[in-house]
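Journal club prep — side note

Before the paper discussion, L.F. wants everyone to see what a predicted structure for a comparable chain looks like in token form. Sequence:
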Amino acid sequence: MSEKEKNNANQQDMNHILKARYDKLKELQDAQADPFLITKAEQTHHSTEIKENFFALENQQVVIAGRVMAKRVMGKAGFLHVQDRDGKIQVYVSRESLGEEEYKAYKRLDIGDIVEVSGFVFKTQTGEISIHGEKILLLSKSLYPLPEKFHGLQDTDTRYRQRYVDLIMNEDSRDVFMKRSQILREIRNFLAGRDFLEVETPMLVENAGGAAARPFETHYNALNEDVKLRISLELYLKRLIIGGMERVYEIGRVFRNEGIDTRHNPEFTLMELYQAYTDYDGMMELTESMFRYLAEKVCGTLHISYQGTPIDLESPFRRLTMTDAIKEYAGIDFDKIQTLEEARALAKEKEIAYEEHHGIGDIENLFFEEYCEEKLIQPTFIMDHPLSISPLTKKKPSDPTKVERFELFIYGREMANAYSELNDPIDQRERFKAQDALADAGDEEANHTDEDFLHAMEIGMPPTGGIGYGIDRLVMLLTDSASIRDVLLFPTMKSLDKKDEGNRASKGNGNGICDQVATVPEKIDFSNVKIEPLFEEQVDFETFSKSDFRAVKVKDCFAVPKSKKLLQFTLDDGTGTDRTILSGIHDFYEPEELIGKTLIAITNLPPRAMMGVESCGMLLSAINQKKDSDEEELHLLMVDDHIPAGAKLY
């Protein structure tokens, strides 16, 4: 059977299932038993509560509510597995205990239906804690079937888009989000124990400051003003410190108009806290204590594992200056770099790409990102950053070219960013001016002068320590989740074309049932497609035959930091060893829409260094000129996913 015939057969099966379920609903409605008219359930217990308290509840009456995940009918008796918030529990039913009519209704239940079960707690002959059902009430009819029970919902794209199905089918996913809620609760408990006050500050702001990031912009109709979505919580929380609140924190959404990959989502949860009369050393102590507290509460141990790597949260966190880290991992001493020309020459020698507006401090930070970050596996505080990349931080009295700042790294990832906060309004104004100049030079991530914040500082701000934590990355660490999308209930996803949504047809049969698959192909104009210059001129057959064209699967893809065009791909090329290829296509694709795709690459080209990364090959694409325009479009060559990684093209 061809692939097309299989798809048609599968669709016919699905249509049959859908029709049968809609018919069952119609029968219930005709019999005045419409489940959708029921407004509540008399739920008294949850599954875990019953199992954990069996001896107290044995032979006691209970009422549970949940979704039917399995059903077995064995003549005059049968079993259900009902899943509620906590997990699954078995329900034994019999015609004798339910009665003739209710037993018939039980037999017509479908997997996915939501029911209320009344009965008493007992243990079966095999020792399984169960409920002996005496009444089953259908609360909600499932009209669309769940994924096949043995494999669950495995497709990652569908899991993220249809999180509701993911939560039903995948216990691990439910556990992650239960733990996320627990982590947030325990953070609040920890900070309450240190006398911090939780507050809320504006999301729509005139000046999006406090971080180096590009904001989203929107418009207030009532005020007829353009505003931005906040990129940080910092400047308003500092106003509260100035107002005398002394210890404040906020857990809230922030929005950064940047790339999407396994560690970045445009909207994410940030926690910032500020404490008067302390400094960045005080923030280090608080951070170590809080991470240990959370690990004990959530994981039950200070020795956790992340992606197969042991992480020790019990030992004192290592402390290392940024300059010393670069010395250790790159053998370069930036304290000896005196001029911008020296820094640029060194960057060119080491193939570190920088931008025209970058100063010595920016280039030092680029060296740290290139040579050090991924080496910092165990908890490490990287301290004393260059002044030029820290516009809101107090200078070190012993070295005014550095600031009292640290970042916490675990598993090569930044987990926190903290300062001894700048409280000198004169110094702050000068630093804002420098940031304005960077913005005028084209730096979209530069801060801008905030006059109201400067006025608040002129009122007087006490010495203060402040810190920001990426909550999503913290949840990733404590739940051993590989991607940020695994810890966000509804991660940002590229919208599906209407023709692709759920592969459902646009035409129904009047009952809301899909009659056919939408098969109208997307019309693409290829009239202006050009051959890449690489293949423009005649190539002799012998040369061409030496090129290794092969199918590759995209395992991961993310935007290269500090580059506006480059995407970095991790590819399965069939060899068993991951292949890295960089491609300047960020203008045409977001990373998340390419993960899982099958592309075509030339894999035997010599490695080429790009942004300090060895790019081993080239992804093939087609470029066309838009009609009546000077603009070009680029289309990666994508092939059917059934083609295995490593398959060669001839």
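L.F.'s comment for the group: DSSP finds 17 helices and 30 strands in the chain. Keep this in mind when we get to the figures.
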